[in-house]
Sequence to fold (623 residues):
Amino acid sequence: MTFEGLLQVLTQFIFYFLAVITFLRWWRYPSRVHLDTMHVFVSIGLAIFIQDLQVLFPVIAPFSSIFIAIAFVVHPFFLLRLVRHFYPIPTWVHRLTLIALIFILISLAFLPISPVLPLLLAIGYIVLIEEYASYIIVYGAFTIKGFLGYRLRLASIGSGLLTLFFLTAFMLVFIFLAHPNAQFPPWLGVFGQSLSILSGLSYYLGFASPRWLKQNWQYKEFYNFVNQTTHQSYNDNYQELLEKLATGAFKAVGGQTAAITHWDASKESLTIKVQSTPPFPIENFQPLREKITNIQKNKQGYLAHIPQDVMPETAQWANQFGAKAMYIIPIVGALQTWGYLLIPLRHEPLFTQDDLDLLTLLVAEIATALDKDSLIQELQQRQIELEVTNKELESFSYSVSHDLRAPLRAINGFSQALSNKYADALDEQGKHYLNRIRENTHQMGELIDDLLALSRITRREMEIDNVYITKIAREIDERLRSEEPDRQVQFEVEEFVEGLGDADLIKIALQNLISNAWKFTSSRATALIQVGVLPMQSNLGDTGKESKIFFVRDNGVGFDMKYADKLFGAFQRLHSTSEFPGTGIGLAIVQRIIHRHGGKIWAESELEKGATFYFTLGEIYEK
Fold:
């Protein structure tokens, strides 16, 4: 097989393939646009098929030539009909083209008698209409955005090459008629076949694009949309996000305008909430009830055909606006359906499913941003409510603590006066009762003091600076020793332990932790209390940063770890006041202080084997 013969086979295969795939698309999804697309490629495929039959059965040549000519002649007319789906063709141009086509078809009936004039008319008609259609396709390729723009750029190449092929054929026929004995160079055949192959490939990529190419276009449009809208939109409000969706979506599919609507059940219409620029020309859009029900049920986009898929009032508006179809895409998020995207189209789209796939991606991106924005707002609102509640609780605790002091002072004062003035009149049991009253009022006073301390810790402003924990721990040890000079306590503090925090608050936390260690080692002949910091430990996974972990350890009575979750609750005690005095607020104060520093606190212990309290201050250090 010669190289020219190989090119001819490739040309036949490509146009056969285009004819079959466009026919199957029309068969599966019948619509006017798919029918017109099929006519464009079936006409060329039919002409090539008849040529093949002519080679196999030469006897049909006189008749088959007429059918070949007819198939080629109707191709530009079908191409012009296809072009109308994305560019308005003047009515007079369409009518004039149809009249010329009918005249040429009639003249082709006389091809066996006088072949010259009908052939010249046919080829001239083909070249003229192909050039006009090619001009419109090229114009659309550079003015229409989105999926259709990508396809039209490839289709413009195919149309231009096919126009060049027909123009070359017209010139060759004209030269042959002027010089019947003229010899044409062999490369002209190869040139013509090459034009046909490249034209077919361009048409294939434009009108029957492979999945990988469509996905590439889809990702490109999606990337552009994200960059132009949501990339810097996470601080945008609800209205701004929907405006960006409306504007970006109609540009991505080559629409005229767009709007975001919500379903108004009382009016049985989609009421416009947000409009793009240019604005939507109506306030309400009324699709058929069953259509919107299907969209709500399936949560999938839909192409509404006008007027058959809309109510009469909407059909009247659509006729004035020139809308032939409408994309309706639900904006479905994880939290709710945020609305419906409407994009009116002046022509039925060429590639409906591709547009729906792209719009679904864009809508999903905005729906996710809306969900996130809604959750952030809800979280912020709950945080505000929590802060208000905490402030109220703190204020209540502070007020109650102050209000309780007056009756306590009265109880304590009168019991003291009673003890002093009427001591001789009281027996031992009466004196015991009075002592019990004074002891309990004293304990109640301590509780109030602790509540006030807890309240102040939450209310006071923090002053962050380097805190010398070693120095603070030694000062606390000295004070405790002065209060109980007979205790045998081995106090070990690691040198040069420091952290970042509020010095006064850290001192209160250490005071409570070391005092607890001092208290719960009171039953030991020789108590051991240690304060230090662990070697640097990773606290944030693989982030390359570490946190200091401080500890206070003792060899006291310890506690059962199954009660560890109760340690840091207010008024929670693991031992009775008869064993160890206290109010049960100390560790709650410590936890509040540590949390205010952004740190954590936890404990490890065994009964009769002591306890260790660990805490961090939220300070992070590079490795």
